[in-house]
Design goal:
The chain is an alpha/beta fold and 229 residues long. The protein has helices at 24-32, 61-72, 87-98, 108-115, 150-155, 205-208, 213-227, and strands at 2-7, 9-12, 18-21, 35-40, 76-79, 103-106, 123-124, 141-145, 159-162, 168-169, 177-182, 187-191, 198-201. It has seven helices and 13 strands.
Length: 229
């Protein structure tokens, strides 16, 4: 069985308590597609939600060993959507790249991957395109796919419709390749050609997997690569 690691995300409950969570759409969709999900928990003894980015200390050697122990168990890693990126997420991605572990980034995960190896930075959306839809069962806006990229090879389309659930975007992908743009020019996809599989997309294929062929192509191709050791 294909083992996929998913770093847990951070959030506040209504009463103010902090939690780590795994989105149900991610779990159910990838299990349905044939993956065995392994949650990857943060390793530092800090409150990940209420600690400011600049307040995190450097990872200790034993904490880095914990991360590698998780990566020893998986065939691939998904960086899912969420509301916050921490230095732990950045280090986890760094080790995925260094170990050439297939990696798929979704929404915030794409933004993390697009920023690598530089510091993470987002900008507020300012556009007439609806990038935060309310209905999960819709495809909201068009995305143009750059020919010759991994994403184009997967989809075999130069324009598709996608869903959209983000209020922020990244403006620079540094030494990563931008493979997709929305109609208003926002970055919608990134990849690298020096990795076995390194693909980030701004939309959520796990939400539209059941009714959208392109979403199935992305997830199924990722899992196929993960299964080919």
């Amino acid at each position: 069985m294909i083992k996929i690691g998913v770093p847990l995300k951070y959030a506040h409950l209504k009463d103010g308590r902090c939690i780590l969570y795994l989105g149900e759409r991610v779990r159910r969709t990838f299990q349905r597609a044939g993956a065995f999900i392994i949650p990857i928990v943060p390793v530092q003894d800090v409150d990940y939600m209420d600690t400011h980015y600049l307040e995190f200390s450097e990872l200790e050697d034993y904490e880095k060993e914990h991360i590698d122990s998780y990566l020893d168990m998986v065939d691939g890693v998904i960086f899912p959507g969420g509301y916050k990126i921490t230095p732990y997420d950045q280090y986890l991605l760094k080790r995925c790249v260094e170990r050439n572990i297939p990696t798929l980034g979704i929404c915030l995960g794409m933004q993390l991957m697009g920023s690598y190896p530089n510091d993470f930075k987002m900008e507020k959306n300012n556009t007439d395109i609806d990038h935060f839809q309310e209905d999960d069962n819709l495809l909201t806006h068009k995305v143009s796919i750059k020919k010759g990229t991994l994403l184009y090879k997967i989809l075999e389309e130069d324009e598709i419709l996608v869903n959209s659930f983000h209020n922020y975007h990244i403006e620079d992908c540094f030494d990563n390749t931008i493979n997709a743009y929305s109609e208003d020019g926002l970055i919608e996809g990134v990849e690298r050609d020096d990795c076995k599989f390194y693909l980030g997309i701004q939309w959520h294929p796990e939400i539209s997997y059941e009714f959208d062929l392109n979403s199935r192509k992305i997830i199924d191709t990722f899992l196929k690569v993960c299964g080919n050791k």
